């Protein structure tokens, strides 16, 4: 899994935060998992799965924290507040109590947390008249006057209170200064906004990768050449727009390695991630490491009704590194082999035929695999 950089989505207007997120394969897989769980066991099973470490880590990797939204829904069909809640971060975002508690738990020491918890418990007892009021007030005063370094330290994050009565110009000036300070502290470079170009980037992405109605359909995949003809643009323009789209969808520059980490599982995970014969195993020279999780195996398996399955689906030692299979298929396509010859040589099932067709259309992907060193 290729995590998004922490602040990548923040650089995008809200509309495009949603548009790129609903195109991210990990988001689609999380959506499929939760929908399958809902149909099997209702909201209770969905809540159980959403507490699994695998789910939490995947959602955090793509910077999604709220209730998942249907990926077939365009931004214009959403209320802006709903889309904002999905990411739990806007250019100016209210902070809820849960977030504050989480920050305290992450930043304070165990001893400091216990002192704070004890103080809160005593204060709650006083408010409920379970403890003398004078004692509670004394405890509160001691807390407010405390010089404990943990309690007087500022959070290592851009959290500020804004005066609602301060002059607007002063607030804007102060916010700009604070933003500049944190950009420098986090080593975030200034980037020119290309928001006006994003629709053109995503149109090319959708045509090349076959993104239709909130899902990837291989039957809708097109080659750079075909997209260039359809849009009346040079092929180099189509390639550049595709690579720009990859950057805003994933947060990373386009490269074959990055493409494999994000789109490889989406396009080839089910067909090429399974077990093949020992002969093919030796011929394809697999990597010793376990590949990334393919969440779609959860959706297609009856074990979805058991939330424990989510944590056990991280792959096994019999999985073949799909990169070696893809490279062999690319070689045979360049040699003029038919689909039947390819499926027979690599010993793949009929379900892999569409993936082979995908590679026939994506000459850029074939070129990348053929130029890359063999694993």
Can you tell me about this structure?
This protein is mainly α and 375 residues long. It has 20 helices and two strands. The protein has helices spanning 14-21, 25-50, 53-61, 80-87, 97-107, 110-127, 133-144, 149-152, 168-185, 198-209, 224-231, 235-250, 256-272, 278-284, 296-299, 308-312, 322-334, 339-346, 353-361, 363-371, and strands spanning 211-212, 215-216. A two-stranded antiparallel ribbon has the order 1-2. The longest helix has 26 residues, at 25-50. The protein is elongated, with a radius of gyration of 26 Å.
List keywords for this structure.
mainly alpha, 375 residues, two-stranded antiparallel sheet
Strand content: under 5%
Number of helices: 20
Overall pLDDT confidence: 79
**Low-confidence segments, ≥5 residues, pLDDT <50?**
273-320
Shape: elongated
- Report the structural category: mainly alpha
**Strands in their spatial order, largest beta sheet:** 1-2
- How many strands in all? 2
Q: Could you give a short account of the major beta sheet?
A: 2 strands, antiparallel
Helix content: 55-70%
**Secondary-structure element pattern, one letter each:** HHHHHHHHHHEEHHHHHHHHHH
**CA distance, first residue to last residue:** 19 Å
Rg over alpha carbons: 26 Å
């Amino acid at each position: 899994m290729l995590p998004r950089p922490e602040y990548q989505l923040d650089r995008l207007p809200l509309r495009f935060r949603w548009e790129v997120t609903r195109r991210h394969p990990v988001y689609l897989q999380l959506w499929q998992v939760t929908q399958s769980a809902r149909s099997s066991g209702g909201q209770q099973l969905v809540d159980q799965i959403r507490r699994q470490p695998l789910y939490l880590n995947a959602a955090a990797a793509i910077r999604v924290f709220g209730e998942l939204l249907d990926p077939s829904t365009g931004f214009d069909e959403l209320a802006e507040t709903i889309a904002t809640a999905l990411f739990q971060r806007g250019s100016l975002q209210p902070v809820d109590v849960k977030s504050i508690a989480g920050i305290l738990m992450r930043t304070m020491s165990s001893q400091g947390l216990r002192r704070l918890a004890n103080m809160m418990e005593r204060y709650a007892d006083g408010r409920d008249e379970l403890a003398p009021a004078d004692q509670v007030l004394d405890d509160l005063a001691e807390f407010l006057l405390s010089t404990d370094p943990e309690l007087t330290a500022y959070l290592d994050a851009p959290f500020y209170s804004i005066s609602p009565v301060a002059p607007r110009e002063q607030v804007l000036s102060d916010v700009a200064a604070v933003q500049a300070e944190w950009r420098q502290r986090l080593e975030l470079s200034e980037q020119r906004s290309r928001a006006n170009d994003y629709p053109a980037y995503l149109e090319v992405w959708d045509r090349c990768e076959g993104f239709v109605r909130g899902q990837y359909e291989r039957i809708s995949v097109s080659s750079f050449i075909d997209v260039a003809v359809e849009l009346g643009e040079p092929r180099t323009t189509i390639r550049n727009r595709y690579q720009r789209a990859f950057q805003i969808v994933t947060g990373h520059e386009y490269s074959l390695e990055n493409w494999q980490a994000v789109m490889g599982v989406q396009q080839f995970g089910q067909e090429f991630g399974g077990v093949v014969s020992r002969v093919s195993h030796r011929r394809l020279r697999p990597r010793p490491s376990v590949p990334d999780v393919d969440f779609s195996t959860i959706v297609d398996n009856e074990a979805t009704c058991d939330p424990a399955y989510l944590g056990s689906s991280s792959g096994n030692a019999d999985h073949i590194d799909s990169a070696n299979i893809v490279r062999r298929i690319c070689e045979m396509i360049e040699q003029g082999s038919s689909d039947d010859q390819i499926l027979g040589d690599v010993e793949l099932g009929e379900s892999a035929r569409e993936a082979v067709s995908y590679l026939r259309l994506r000459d850029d992907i074939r070129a990348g695999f053929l130029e890359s060193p063999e694993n």
